[in-house]
Amino acid sequence: MQFHVLASGSKGNCFVLCDGEDTIVIDCGSTKRHLTHSFHSIDIDYKGVSALLLTHSHGDHVSQLKLFQQQKIYAPFDLTVEYQGEMVTPYEDFMVGKFRVLPLPLSHDIGLTVGYVIQSEKEKLVYITDTGYIRSQDYKWIENADYYIMESNHDIELLMKSRRPYQVKQRILSAIGHLSNEDCTDILCEIIGTKTKEIILAHISEEANTHEKALHICQKKISQKEIKIRCAKQFEILTGGCLDE
Predict the structure, then answer these.
(1) Around Cβ 179, how many Cβ atoms within 10 Å?
(2) Burial group, residue 81, by CB count within 10 angstroms (0-12, 13-18, 19+)
(3) 28-63 pLDDT, tens per residue?
(4) Mind listing the pLDDT tens digit for each residue in 159-176?
(5) What are the structural domains, with CATH classification, of the chain?
């Protein structure tokens, strides 16, 4: 597997996973200019990807849906008739080329939101953002993955000091909000294993967090030096994984 984080944060989210034959895109937020330029930069034609997987219907995850109008789209909500959409059901896996995809239910403030566990013949990747918590009974699906793209949205102290309305702060901290740096790291400590190679901290708030804080918390608790830990950024491409595996 090789992956590219094209955008990650409140201004847009887009993730690309490929294995040389099949290419999956998860979410399509951000601006049209940024996404089209990013796909060109990684030498992938977005009009020819195998499928687009959507996590939920917030604008920062679906704003450029029209770019993928001709592709197969999997979503946890109804799409309008001009799209080739198929509803996903939690715990019911499906195939995209050689990838096996398992949607997992998350807890966010807009209808059904899902994360995805994606497996090739040799490797497993877990993609989870936009959730207030992860059900402990779902750990069995996400443990010992090769790669994790995991939300590390906010630092609690910075969030509370921010100029956001109190109600917004409470929503972010709630069970239908977002994972804090500590939440993210505590979950990762429960699920990483001997196969784990790389962790990408994602959906990092620009106002209520810093990359340095998110990275420090995670590296402090995860002592395995062989695991690469990095932060995804809002408008910079981050590439990981390995096509040779």
Answers:
(1) 27
(2) exposed
(3) 999 999 999 999 999 999 999 999 999 999 999 999
(4) 999 999 999 999 999 999
(5) 2-241 (3.60.15.10)
